[in-house]
Specification:
The protein has two domains: about 80 residues, Lipocalin (Beta Barrel), CATH 2.40.128.180; about 80 residues, Beta Barrel (Lipocalin), CATH 2.40.128.180. It contains one helix and 17 strands. Helix content is about 5%, strand content about 60%. The longest helix is centred in the middle third of the chain and has 11 residues. By secondary structure, the chain is mainly beta. A hairpin with a 2-residue loop joins strand 6 and strand 7. A five-stranded antiparallel β-sheet has the order 13-14-15-16-17, with no helix packed on it. A four-stranded antiparallel β-sheet has the order 1-2-3-4, with no helix packed on it. A four-stranded antiparallel β-sheet has the order 5-6-7-8. It is found in: Cytoplasm.
Length: about 180
Amino acid sequence: LEKMTDLVAVWEVALSDGVHKIEFEHGTTSGKRVVYVDGKEEIRREWMFKLVGKETFTVGATKTKAAINIDAVSGFAYEYTLEINGKSLKQYMENRLKTTNTWILNLGGTDYRIVLEKDTMDVWCNGQKMETAGEFVEDGTETHFTVADHSCCIKAVSSGKRKEGIIHTLIVDNREIPEAVE
C-alpha cells in the first residue's frame, strides 16, 4: 500500500449525518490527484497535465456536493480550497450554525451526536435520520423520538425576540442537554 506522500490538505466537515474527513493528495510532479472521504478513495486521477482546476464529489449519506479548487499561488506553490454546496467551507459552516442545532451526549457509555435541521425539522442521530412524532403544545412544538430506549424531545419555543427567533432545546429523560459547538 502506497503511503499518502502527496497529501496536501485535510478538512473536517460537520454534516447532519456526522463529521466527515476529506483528504486530498496532489502530486505536482506526476499530476496525480486523489480525494478520500472518510478514508475511502472517491477520485483518483493519474498524469494530469493541468495542475490547477477543480475536483467535484459528494460527501455523506445526504450526498452533499463538494469541490476542491486547486489554484496556483506562485511558481510551484498551490492553494487548495474546499467548497460545500457551492460555498466556501467557512461560509457553509457559518450558514449551518443558523440552520441546524447539534447536541453531543453520552447514554449508557455510548456517544450520540443529535442534529436538528431547522428548515425541515429532520432529526439525525449518529448518521441515521430518526423517526419522529411532532406535536403542538401550549408554548410551541415538541418533536419526540427515541435513542437507545431513552425518550428524547426537542422543544421549540419562541424567544419573544425577532432577532433570536425560535429556541430549540433537547430534553433526554427529562434532562436538558446543552447545545454543542462544532
